[in-house]
Write a structure and sequence with these properties.
Elements (H helix, E strand, L loop, with lengths): L9 E9 L4 E8 L5 E8 L3 E6 L5 E9 L4 E5 L2 E3 L7 H13 L1 E12 L10 E11 L14 E6 H9 L6 H13 L7 E2 L10 H7 L4
Helix pairs in contact: 2-3
């Protein structure tokens, strides 16, 4: 392949919708042939999830209602990067305690995801956490988390739940399979503070400026 790569410059951009946890904008993008095309992009604050393994290699799962699918899903403890000034690892540590009532002394980056890069900036980092201590969940009132339940599941069973279609949350699918993959090769893990070039920032910046 010769020549320079096309840069896909944004010629113009307009907001379509701005909500509390996402925004929709329409970008007019210059295509390789010289014309333009409109690409609708969902802005998202980004998220983290935690594959927490105990001494018996059981993984912590939460059972939580998801209104888009109108049912409860088996998922990893997770949360949005929606606290300004909080780094992703700090968010993961907080969410692990809030959702599962546990803390961990060992943290590593397990896998990074771009769930739907064709139309959204959403990116998710999944951490692997070990050295588990039970501390209990803090009181929760309102919203879906008040109905959340937790369960320790052996890693082989969790893998079978993925393959059988019982686990369908994409972040959880990736986290479970990645945890199984590194079980025999911990050296494959990245540090907890590994670079994350795809972490979204546009929605957070928008909210910091009053949503505009």
């Amino acid at each position: 392949m010769t020549g320079s790569r096309h840069e896909f410059a944004v010629q113009s951009s307009k907001d379509v919708y701005v909500g509390k946890v996402m925004a929709l904008r329409a970008d007019e993008v210059v295509m390789p042939g010289g014309g333009t095309a409109v690409r609708e992009i969902v802005e998202h604050p980004g998220a983290v999830a935690v594959a927490a393994l105990d001494a018996d290699d059981r993984i912590m799962m939460v059972h939580q209602y998801r209104h888009a699918l109108r049912r409860r899903l088996w998922e990893l403890p997770a949360g949005l990067l929606d606290v300004r000034g909080e780094d992703p690892l700090g968010t993961a540590q907080r969410e692990l305690t809030e959702e599962a009532g546990i803390t961990a002394s060992e943290w590593a980056t397990l896998v990074d995801l771009a769930p739907s890069p064709g139309f959204t900036e959403e990116a998710v980092r999944v951490y692997l956490a070990r050295g588990i201590t039970e501390v209990g969940r803090p009181p929760v009132e309102g919203d879906e988390e008040a109905d959340l339940t937790t369960r320790w599941v052996s890693l082989p069973v969790a893998v079978r739940m993925v393959l059988s279609g019982t686990i369908v949350n994409s972040t959880t699918v990736a986290g479970v399979l990645a945890a199984q993959a590194v079980a025999g090769d911990p050296s494959a893990l990245r540090p907890a503070d590994a670079p994350w070039p795809d972490r979204p920032t546009r929605f957070a910046d928008r909210m910091a400026h009053g949503g505009s």
